[in-house]
């Protein structure tokens, strides 16, 4: 079988009814396809079996994570070309969320079914390959129950603080940075984001702040050091909490910052003067979002502010047909669900909040993700040693693909500033946006 690459290319082009945009190098050393395009390297025949047994994004992901499949050349260009295959496009040539072309649907076509049979011969005999060990296994308990949420959070965050240090850099902030200038460093951009949140919340000395999903403690540390607040940070990750407590102790702020391993639904103290939720609400779930908003509303004093920083997806024409990306669900954020920004605003308003400001930061997240990918690639051998090759490959793929998704407006990210107004109706907000100046209560 010295022509496997050509045979795969021919099968792909018959299935697509058009040219296959990537070059292919097969396990037998053969190559086919455009000479200047990124190369899809099929290291083992098993890669093709993975794609055939699980057509679409999950099969591709399993082959990538297992090292059966690789890409040589520009990773972003390759992923962009692959996205052009799996996303339906409109007359403008742009991908349209809600019109994802599942490979499993294509196989229902008699033409592509015949091609799949030919591909099975090329893939060779063998049972369906086992998923790589990095894939999230069966989750126990009702969806988004506290116990199941803790399992999901542990899968993503409890993979080693040393690994995250290599990816995130010294800031240890795992959310969209705020790039005020194109030549800003990642660390400067993350500090700018934390400060922007503090200013929007109008934090002042000795106010109380609750940071929901506090990660490695960067937000509470910034707010306590630069704005003098007393802060509580909560996370479901034991590794994050240990790391954050160490940072708090080293900063001499144990009397002002309390780090807890706690579900947001279990927080019963307060009221707080302000609440920040940065990159946490994606884990809440669509069906529980109203409960999430109502609980945070109850934890705020009248006049208190909530800053909800959250990734959003584009709305689907048929919301009931919405499905979670299988790669993200199995390998990255188990049980994570994205909602359109309009749904988030509606749920906050239904809970009693008055939404006062929405700022879209889509392009900022693309820049952030590209910076994280550079960090990972620059520390690749260390990352592999710390978390394993499969885990490192998961992070590289998901961050690079996510950067493209933000750039191409498949997903976005927004900071929503909401207020629990006083009984009189007063919100304590200035008449116009004062950023970057300090907000006055």
Total of DSSP H or I helical runs spanning 4+ residues? 17
Name of the CATH architecture of the largest domain = 3-Layer(aba) Sandwich
Name the structural class: alpha/beta
CATH class of the largest domain: Alpha Beta
Per DSSP E runs of 2 or more residues, the count of β-strands stands at 13
Number of domains: 2
Low-confidence blocks of residues: 89-104
Approximately what portion of the residues adopt beta-strand conformation? 15-25%
The best one-word shape is elongated
What's the CATH superfamily of the largest domain, by name?
Answer: Vaccinia Virus protein VP39
What does this structure look like?
With 441 residues, this protein is an alpha/beta fold. The protein folds into 2 domains: 4-123, no CATH class; 146-419, Vaccinia Virus protein VP39 (Rossmann fold, 3-Layer(aba) Sandwich). Helices cover 43% and strands 17% of the residues. It is built from 17 helices and 13 strands. The protein has helices at 4-16, 45-53, 57-65, 75-86, 103-106, 110-123, 146-157, 161-168, 186-200, 218-227, 238-250, 289-299, 326-332, 341-350, 362-378, 380-387, 389-407, and strands at residues 23-25, 31-32, 39-42, 69-72, 87-89, 95-100, 208-212, 230-235, 257-261, 272-278, 300-313, 354-360, 411-419. The strands form 3 sheets. The protein has a 7-stranded mixed beta sheet. A 4-stranded mixed beta sheet has the order 2-1-3-4. A two-stranded antiparallel sheet has the order 5-6. Helix 8 runs antiparallel to helix 16, helix 12 (289-299) packs across helix 14 and helix 16 packs across helix 17. The longest helix has 19 residues, at 389-407. The radius of gyration is 23 Å and the shape is elongated. 42% of the residues are buried. Residues 89-104 have low confidence and may be disordered.
């Amino acid at each position: 079988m010295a022509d496997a690459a050509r045979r795969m290319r021919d099968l792909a082009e018959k299935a697509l009814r058009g040219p296959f945009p990537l070059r292919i190098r097969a396990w037998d050393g053969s190559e086919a396809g455009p000479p200047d395009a990124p190369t899809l390297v099929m290291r083992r025949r098993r890669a093709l079996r993975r794609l055939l047994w699980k057509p679409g994004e999950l099969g591709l992901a399993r082959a990538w994570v297992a090292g059966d499949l690789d890409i040589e050349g520009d990773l972003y260009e390759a992923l962009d070309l692959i996205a052009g295959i799996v996303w339906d496009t409109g007359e403008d040539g742009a991908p349209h969320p809600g019109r994802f072309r599942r490979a499993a649907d294509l196989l229902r076509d008699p033409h592509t079914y015949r091609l799949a049979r030919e591909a099975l011969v090329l893939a060779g005999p063998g049972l369906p390959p086992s998923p790589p060990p990095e894939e999230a296994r069966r989750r126990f308990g009702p969806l988004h129950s506290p116990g199941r949420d803790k399992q999901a959070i542990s899968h993503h965050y409890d993979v080693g603080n040393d690994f995250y240090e290599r990816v995130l850099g010294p800031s240890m902030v795992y959310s969209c940075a705020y790039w005020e200038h194109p030549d800003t460093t990642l660390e400067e951009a993350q500090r700018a984001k934390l400060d922007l949140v503090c200013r929007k919340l109008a934090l002042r000395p000795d106010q109380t702040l609750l940071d929901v999903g506090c990660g490695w403690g960067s937000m509470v540390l910034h707010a306590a050091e630069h704005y003098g607040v007393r802060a509580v940070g909560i996370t479901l990750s034991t590794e994050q909490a240990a790391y954050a407590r160490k940072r708090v102790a080293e900063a001499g702020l144990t009397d002002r910052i309390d780090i807890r391993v706690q579900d947001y639904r279990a927080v019963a103290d307060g009221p707080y003067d302000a609440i920040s939720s940065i990159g946490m609400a994606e884990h809440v779930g669509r069906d529980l979002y109203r409960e999430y908003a109502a609980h945070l509303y109850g934890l705020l004093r009248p006049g208190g502010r909530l800053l909800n920083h959250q990734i959003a997806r584009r709305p689907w024409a048929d919301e009931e047909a919405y499905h979670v990306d299988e790669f993200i669900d199995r390998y990255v954020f188990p049980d994570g669900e994205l909602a359109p920004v309009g749904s988030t605003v509606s749920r906050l308003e239904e809970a009693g909040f008055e939404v006062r400001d929405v700022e879209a930061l889509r392009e900022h997240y693309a820049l952030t993700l590209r910076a994280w990918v550079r960090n990972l690639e620059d520390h690749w051998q260390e990352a592999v040693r710390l978390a394993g090759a499969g885990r490192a490959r998961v992070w590289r793929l998901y961050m690079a693909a996510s950067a493209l998704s933000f750039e191409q407006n498949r997903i976005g990210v927004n900071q929503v500033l909401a207020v629990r107004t006083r009984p009189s109706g007063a919100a304590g907000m200035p008449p116009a946006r004062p950023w970057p100046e300090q907000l006055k209560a």
